[in-house]
Amino acid sequence: xxxxxxxxxxxxxxxxxxxxxxxxxxxxxxxxxxxxxxxxxxxxxxxxxxxxxxxxxxxxxxxxxxxxxxxxxxxxxxxxxxxxxxxxxxxxxxxxxxxxxxxxxxxxxxxxxxxxxxxxxxxxxxxxxxxxxxxxxxxxxxxxxxxxxxxxxxxxxxxxxxxxxxxxxxxxxxxxxxxxxxxxxxxxxxxxxxxxxxxxxxxxxxxxxxxxxxxxxxxxxxxxxxxxxxxxxxxxxxxxxxxxxxxxxxxxxxxxxxxxxxxxxxxxxxxxxxxxxxxxxxxxxxxxxxxxxxxxxxxxx
Amino acid sequence: xxxxxxxxxxxxxxxxxxxxxxxxxxxxxxxxxxxxxxxxxxxxxxxxxxxxxxxxxxxxxxxxxxxxxxxxxxxxxxxxxxxxxxxxxxxxxxxxxxxxxxxxxxxxxxxxxxxxxxxxxxxxxxxxxxxxxxxxxxxxxxxxxxxxxxxxxxxxxxxxxxxxxxxxxxxxxxxxxxxxxxxxxxxxxxxxxxxxxxxxxxxxxxxxxxxxxxxxxxxxxxxxxxxxxxxxxxxxxxxxxxxxxxxxxxxxxxxxxxxxxxxxxxxxxxxxxxxxxxxxxxxxxxxxxxxxxxxxxxxxxxxxxxxxxxxxxxxxxxxxxxxxxxxxxxxxxxxxxx
Amino acid sequence: xxxxxxxxxxxxxxxxxxxxxxxxxxxxxxxxxxxxxxxxxxxxxxxxxxxxxxxxxxxxxxxxxxxxxxxxxxxxxxxxxxxxxxxxxxxxxxxxxxxxxxxxxxxxxxxxxxxxxxxxxxxxxxxxxxxxxxxxxxxxxxxxxxxxxxxxxxxxxxxxxxxxxxxxxxxxxxxxxxxxxxxxxxxxxxxxxxxxxxxxxxxxxxxxxxxxxxxxxxxxxxxxxxxxxxxxxxxxxxxxxxxxxxxxxxxxxxxxxxxxxxxxxxxxxxxxxxxxxxxxxxxxxxxxxxxxxxxxxxxxxxxxxxxxxxxxxxxxxxxxxxxxxxxxxxxxxxxxxxxxxxxxxxxxxxxxxxxxxxxxxxxxxxxxxxxxxxxxxxxxxxxxxxxxxxxxxxxxxxxxxxxxxxxxxx
Lengths: 301, 338, 410
What we know:
The structure holds three protein chains of three kinds.
Chain A: H1 2-32, H2 39-55, H3 60-83, H4 91-113, H5 137-159, H6 161-171, H7 173-178, H8 183-209, H9 217-230, H10 235-263, H11 273-287
Helix pairs in contact in A: 1-5, 1-8, 1-9, 1-10, 2-3, 2-4, 2-8, 3-8, 5-6, 5-8, 6-8, 9-10, 9-11, 10-11
Chain B: H1 2-28, H2 34-58, H3 68-85, H4 89-111, H5 116-135, H6 140-143, E1 149-150, H7 164-188, H8 190-200, H9 202-207, H10 212-238, E2 240-241, H11 248-261, H12 266-294, H13 302-316, H14 320-337
Antiparallel strand pairs in B: 1-2
Helix pairs in contact in B: 1-7, 2-7, 2-10, 2-11, 2-12, 3-4, 3-5, 3-10, 4-10, 7-8, 8-10, 11-12, 11-14, 12-13, 12-14
Chain C: H1 2-22, E1 32-33, E2 41-48, H2 58-73, E3 81-88, H3 93-105, E4 111-113, H4 118-131, E5 135-136, H5 161-175, E6 181-186, H6 189-202, E7 210-216, H7 224-232, E8 237-241, H8 244-256, E9 262-265, H9 272-279, H10 281-284, E10 288-291, H11 305-317, H12 326-345, E11 348-349, H13 351-358, E12 387-394, E13 397-406
Parallel strand pairs in C: 1-11, 2-3, 2-4, 4-5, 6-7, 6-8, 8-9
Antiparallel strand pairs in C: 10-12, 12-13
Helix pairs in contact in C: 2-12, 3-4, 5-6, 7-8, 8-9, 12-13
């Protein structure tokens, strides 16, 4: 039982990582209808930038806004410079461009900062408290920041004119243009916001997994799965999805382990936890193709 | 009209004959190394795999990010049969094809309910899962676990004066010609037309009486079959399979090859196969050259070149190299016509 | 036979004539070359993962290349410049086969040096042995590389994982009476090699001491879940078979969840710069490991001549490189072992002689090796380094203890 609680807590903490990235994926999806495979690498690159600023003497809480802003600009310029001319290109071409971006950011980080893991200090105070054996202060901080981020985005999309304009531009570009919304600016804005959210994700993940160019490679898949299981068009769903995937994979390993211990039969273990988690995710999706919290989109014929 | 058509057919056969004989002759004369022959064989192997993906994604509109999974299944079916059951290598090709067809069909059935991004995730997950399954504890006796399986490269039969690289080139070439020929006829047939009808307008297709579910699942099977045969050939050429040979990179390469070569194009599939094989070599060489000539304070890594190449290609030839060449050819014809 | 004598006689006389005429080098008569060697050049092939997820290891290839540049600047090896050709294999076995074939068939290298990774080396081993091209000093510690009878053209370099694993097992048996052992291992052949050696060291009757084995995949973001499993298994001895990133995660997590077992860590992660400092020096105290090289950041070696030479080399030939990266340390050591072999080959640069010289290193002290650890090979011993010394992390230094443990009998 003790272990079960610990595994769930640890899954929750990992889930926060996936949720953050899933949130960034949703940001771009909501505004441009694309899944950005380079999102993880962008976040990793931002985390390196943050490390660099801290290495130059800034504190974390100063470096993070600066880096989030720089990432925002990078996101906007990627959209304006690289994706803009491909506005009418087929989805597959865009996917290949994303793969290209992924390769570039990954290798540039390696070129500039090297491949040896770097320590990335946790911004949260390292205190011991009742239950800190279950979940550490950084993990709690991650969960809280993720939820705050979600709340902020929710408010942004619901209550600010720009947020509303962005949603309008994504859902119905033609009408949006008619009411005077600059749709192309909104797309760029979506990219910028996603990159900024990614920067926060990167800075939260780095203290746990250590900073290096591969840091986000595997997390992207979990973030992707989280976003889809929750519903790729809903920020709240994506965060919930991230947590679900994080907990699910730990539970798979836990029960597999328990079964082997008690009966001596090996069915699943740590090696299969990702696979089983994905099978569950896909099963859910076949039963409910729009995700747990997504809305069904009505297709126009 | 008929004469022109048969003239073209003769031209095509002649071209194929040259493509078959020239590398063999070249390597016999010492003009090209055995390594080059191997490179050509691999280009063809990847062309078959890219064609497989193209049948599903290009012609039928189902996006797959995980066709490396079927590549791995094909390779392992061949390797296990040769190594554990002592089957002759050539007999494993049809078995690998059949197994991958079944695997693809079965995967295609539930995947029917998934569209677009969801299907992309499901296939991506499949590609991640297959190397894990190969390492699965209860399958280790069969698959060799993490160690993989070592094979022996087949020599040319009947005392043909070919070394094993040359012989494999002949095999791969003949298999590829056959499979492209089948694909062309398939696409020209009723099934082929319904494939594309589903891609272009699913609902209209179903009102025309096309069984969408069945057609999509069968397409998935056929697509997997092609990739599986390519995988089996890959295993035989390299005499080695291991889970590490079939990471997600293979799936990504196939997708990139398809888009860069030409979506929904047979010729594009060939170009895609060539591209996949060539880019990896030149990205490394290009990175070295740039690092040395620019005297940058940092070393440029191969992936930087790879990424830039991909983006530029999508820019310059948005419809793939096949489309780009066709456009170029059209322009030349127009100009010479004037 | 007579023909041979006559030819020798003829070359002999012509040499004499030459020597008299132009005072040429007297050893001209013994000059023998295979592909990749000539009067002016030695071509060495190498493959490394410069792209993809294992690109961290690229540092080794770059260091070897820089060492050869230094050797060339100093006049080369016996007057010949080294041409070091290194290709990217992306840590993919089929690509490794391709690149090695390019090296052998197109670049025509004399030998393939230090290819990295067990899967890639397994894939190229048969090819190189049929072609009779040396696969020299492979960069993996799998125990299958030193088999001169089956594979006379393949030779390892570093201590093999299995032996190291059994050393830890024996140390546990001797020092911890009521050991309950938890193992964390990477789920691939590197992990299995260590684990099998470890089990062998324990012996059948003691295998039951292992209470929990948790594996991880290189694609796992963290090993947190595994560490919780291990803690809850009640293990009081921890054998940690992980690569640097996961080792650092495991050390950090163990401290976070307050699990304080006797911690044995594999040599693969014996780096202050890449493991203990990122994981936290405090959390790393007391970790036990088997060592064969000096850590360049360890203050106790600061004045040792090879470390001084290495630092000068890094400053001159690899400015801007991350000196915390252990790959530079490893690469310097292994590349210098190759230089030694090529020096000993003299003017007989045939593949056969390369293997012969590589198999007759006795007591060679490659730079960076711990004092007392020497490279020994023979025609039946293709494991160059077979000695390690146990050490524990103390402060920012390794405290070595006990004797040097050798396994030379193999």
